[in-house]
Design a protein that fits this description.
Helix content: 25-40%
Keywords: Metal-binding, Zinc, Zinc-finger
Strand content: 5-15%
Distance between the termini: 73 Å
Radius of gyration: 32 Å
Protein name: B box-type domain-containing protein
Shape: flat
GO molecular function, one term: zinc ion binding
Largest sheet: 5 strands, antiparallel
Structural class: alpha+beta
Organism: Effrenium voratum
InterPro entries: CEBP_ZZ_sf (IPR038446), WW_dom_sf (IPR036020), Znf_B-box (IPR000315)
Number of helices: 13
């Protein structure tokens, strides 16, 4: 592999893996390093002198004898050696960091983080010593900023921060170490959350085959001769005359939302009998002001609920404490030891009905439990807190406001009350 041009011009023979002072100084000058006033950055030039040109770059010579460098992938031609540009960026970043360090900006930043954590710890422990709920919206918002959690977008991670504060206080752990403790787990949870959103708990088709003629309605027929998909009206109009009248068709079997024909149906209204996507069900049954009676209608999930753990078998157990869906094998494996053995589990039959201790759970409560378990946004931006009198109120992460009445998230249709944690004496009982 070719080296930098400065190295090739050196007369002195240099052992492999080392470079002469003349070569390093020459490269430093090409990068822009002042070797008299900035000798501390000579290591950058030394690293550049040992580096090989990246494989996608080719060295060429034009008709004037000038050396040019061509990138085969990006098809870019330049006169400056690509390694010089790369190590120039390293030099600029190192010089900028050094200036910030000398001016005390970096130290102040670290001190500010320590000061913020000290203030958060003092506030939390002060409330805990008085028997008050340790987590408040202000405290959790402050810790979320320190951890780099965007409260207006990462609702689930905000809830994790809140529950971590409560767990540290309950177990009497050192709250000042929470930033370091959560550094890797927070990134891990971000990746898990992305995967969960991709799987979306329920395995279902993601697209609807639309009519290729009008492009507005779902296709119900496929013409075997035309090889195109049509809704019934478009097929009738395009195949009414001529040779097309004899074309053979096959049915297109797909379950489409009754409210939005471009979306796959995921549930069925128990009372209406129609099929809807989750958004379509909410649009028709929750937001139709002209039909308030529709708000009491219940929905049944199509194709059953999938185990959140193995993502393969249908769920037969809903854990009230984990608020997750499990097949029997996964539930036993995860709940056979430790405190999870005391978790309350509900059973789900083949028709999607939920039973608690052999008794049928009321449809309204079953709806809430199922929606909460299926929801991948954890009741959206509404997060429940308790005030100093231990009364529940809800905090909106986007609008930064609080309400005392339990709201319903407009995206998921899940009542925010399902996210309320029980009081300590209720857990004990």
């Amino acid at each position: 592999m070719p080296k930098l041009a400065v190295l090739n011009e050196a007369d002195e023979e240099i052992p492999e893996g080392a470079n002469s002072a003349e070569v390093v100084v020459g490269i430093a000058d090409m990068i822009g390093i002042d070797i008299v006033n900035e000798p501390q950055f000579l290591w950058i030039a030394e690293e550049a002198s040992r580096a090989h040109i990246p494989p996608d770059w080719k060295e060429l010579t034009n008709e004037d004898g000038e050396v040019l460098y061509y990138h085969t992938q990006e098809r870019k031609l330049q006169k400056v050696h690509p390694l010089i540009l790369r190590y120039q960026e390293v030099y600029f970043k190192a010089r900028s960091y050094t200036k910030q360090l000398e001016s005390g900006q970096i130290g102040n930043l670290l001190e500010q983080t320590d000061a913020k954590m000290a203030a958060i710890t003092a506030s939390v422990m002060g409330r805990a010593s008085k028997g008050l709920p340790p987590a408040t919206p202000e405290v959790v918002e402050s810790l979320a900023r320190v951890l780099g959690v965007e409260s207006k977008k990462e609702f689930f991670l905000f809830r994790v921060v809140k529950q971590t504060i409560e767990a540290y206080v309950e177990k009497k752990l050192d709250l000042s170490s929470v930033v370091q403790d959560l550094k890797d787990p927070m990134e891990f949870l971000r990746q898990i959350r992305k995967k969960q959103n991709q799987v979306d708990v329920i395995r279902k088709p993601t697209t609807v085959v639309m009519c290729q003629e009008c492009e507005n309605r779902a296709a119900v027929l496929k013409c075997e001769q035309c090889k195109d998909y049509f809704c019934q009206d478009c097929f009738n109009s395009t195949h009414a005359t001529g040779k097309r009248r004899a074309h053979i068709t096959s049915d297109v079997e797909q379950l489409v939302c009754a409210a939005f024909e471009d979306r796959v149906a995921t549930c069925q209204c128990v009372q209406c009998g129609l099929f809807y996507s989750d958004e379509g069900f909410m649009h028709v049954h929750a937001w139709d002001a002209a039909r308030p009676d529709l708000r009491n209608h219940l929905k049944r999930v199509i194709n059953g609920l999938v185990c959140l753990e193995c993502e393969h078998y249908n769920a037969s157990v809903l854990c009230e404490d984990c608020v997750d869906l499990f097949c029997t094998e996964c539930f036993i494996r995860l709940h056979r030891k430790g405190k999870r053995r005391q978790h309350v589990h509900l059973t789900i039959d083949n028709t999607g009905q939920i039973f608690r201790g052999g008794f049928l759970v009321p449809p309204e409560e079953a709806q809430v439990l199922t929606d909460r378990a299926r929801s991948t946004v954890e009741t959206g931006p509404w997060i429940p807190f308790r005030d100093d009198e231990l009364n529940v109120y809800w905090y909106h992460l986007v609008e930064k406001r609080s309400v005392s009445q339990s709201p319903v998230d407009p995206v998921t249709g899940v009542d925010a009350a399902v996210g309320v944690d029980p009081l300590p004496d209720e857990e004990a009982g």
